[in-house]
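Homework help board

Subject: predicted structure for assignment chain

Our instructor gave us this sequence and asked us to write out the predicted structure in token form, then describe one feature. I got the tokens but I'm not sure how to describe them. Can anyone check?
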Amino acid sequence: MRENHQIELRALQPEDREQFIRDNQWAFKYGALQEFGLRDGHLDEDGEIISRQTIAGAIDAGVAYRIWSGDRKVGGVVIKTLDNHGWLDLLFVSPEEHSKGIGYAAWCAIEKLYPQIDIWETCTPYFEKRNIHFYVNRCGFHIVEFFHEYHQEQHASDDMDIDEHSGEHGPDEMFRFEKLIRHSGIDR
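My token output:
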């Protein structure tokens, strides 16, 4: 059941950093376990879909917010911006809070916080059907690229992992999305 949630984005506090990382890992792992169960081959050596290093790097390179609903932390987001370009590096909602409109409310808040952004980009794993639905059908992103073994990133950027074991550039089996914002005075 979708609820109309009032959320607030609050800057990530240093004392909450480790819990933010663990919460983000749990949200991503939950999606993989829902899709693949315990047979998932996408987990790293620590049993995570997204490494602590990846999350910490995103936090360090961007701006991190906690998503609050009332007095509860219900998710988080990390973004980067440069001039009129924005990257949604991480967006997660606690699994027990899914389907309540929290992610969409958070995305709308991000767009309002950064009205100068003309184009947003993000990526999500191919198996995250909920995320693909969310970005395309709810938020208005378009899939513009699919990374896989036959199409590797040609210009690996700083925000993409290099697999420690293979030395290959990521992302692996990921969709890249873009959203163009029209600044014509019309509500987006």
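Reply (TA_rk): Your tokens look well-formed. For the description, you could write something like this. The chain has one domain: 8-180. That's the kind of observation they're looking for.
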